[in-house]
Amino acid sequence: MNNSTKIIIIGSLLSTLGIAGLAKAISTNQPQLPIAIIPQHHSSIQVIISKDKDVKIDENREQPDAANDADTEVNDDKVPTSLSQVGEYGESIYDMAKANDWTKATANLTSLENAPKSLRTEIKGENKTELVQLDAKIVALKGAVTAKNRISAMRDANQVTTGATQGGFDALISVVSNTKTAVESGNFDKAQQEFDKFENAWVKVEDGVKTKSSKTYNAIENAATQVKGALKAKDKAKALEGLQTLNSNIATVSKG
User: Is 162:236 a contact under the CB 8 Å cutoff?
Assistant: First the structure.
């Protein structure tokens, strides 16, 4: 077929079908390629359809990171379950002694006496000195509860709770100290990193602090808020002021 003939035929098609019709006519004469619909989420295999209709599977596509697909929580310096129970029983006995409810105080005391047995297994024989001290505090508390001595029972219950949560107080003091060092050197990024650890340590002891002194509890909460804001604003004076308040209140309450 010569060129002039081709032009005439094309012209006829254009006039009859229009441009869109021509495209449709051409497409209807082309062999259809298979179409694969692949879900985009969590897909680790890429499907490629080539012009020769072969379906190729590319398994070298970047695999999703499982660590990013699930929310995980890292709990550093986890407090042993039995140690937490010692603190809880101590707080309960304090409340019962304060209310002169010696029946419930005695029931909690029985549970408290059993907790250190499990604690010895959990900490695998470490911190023997602290365990001996805890045993002595529980013996003193038992004597006060048996004698229904309200003041002594409340005092000794506080001692037990403080002993059980001392690790949390030590962690708080360390966070405050490290944050202060960073602020004094003008390294607010480092200071922020250090103070981010505060809440993890505070949550382990805050209930006991609130039970013993709501005033101290509020002072610590307010100072922590002040430090957070000061670090964000890079206000050295405010940050140091808040850290000093934290340090003094934590030191006081940790001594029972």
Answer: no
Give the strand pairing for 46-49 and 55-58: antiparallel
What is the spatial distance between Cα 99 and Cα 44, in angstroms, rounded to a whole number?
Answer: 63
Would you say the C-alpha torsion 121, 126, 128, 129 has a positive or negative sign? negative
Type of residue numbered 120: R
Residue 158, C-beta contacts closer than 8 angstroms, at least 6 positions apart: 90, 94, 212, 256
In the beta sheet, which residues pair with residue 127? none
Structure tokens at 150: 């309200």
Q: Over the stretch 168-208, which tens digit does the pLDDT of each residue have?
A: 788 899 999 999 999 999 999 999 999 999 998 898 788 87
Q: How far apart are CA 90 and CA 84, in angstroms?
A: 10
Distances in whole angstroms, Cα of residue 253 to Cα of each of 55, 99, 113, 134, 209: 71, 22, 24, 18, 7
Run of H or E including 156: helix 150-184
Tell me the three state secondary structure of residue 32: coil
User: What element of type H or E holds 48?
Assistant: strand 46-49
pLDDT digits (tens, 9 = 90+) for 131-153: 788 888 999 999 999 999 999 99
SS3 call for 124: coil
Say if residues 180 and 223 touch (Cβ distance below 8 Å).
Answer: no
What one-character DSSP code corresponds to residue 53?
S
Task: Give the phi and the psi of residue 194 in degrees, each rounded to 5.
Answer: -70, -45
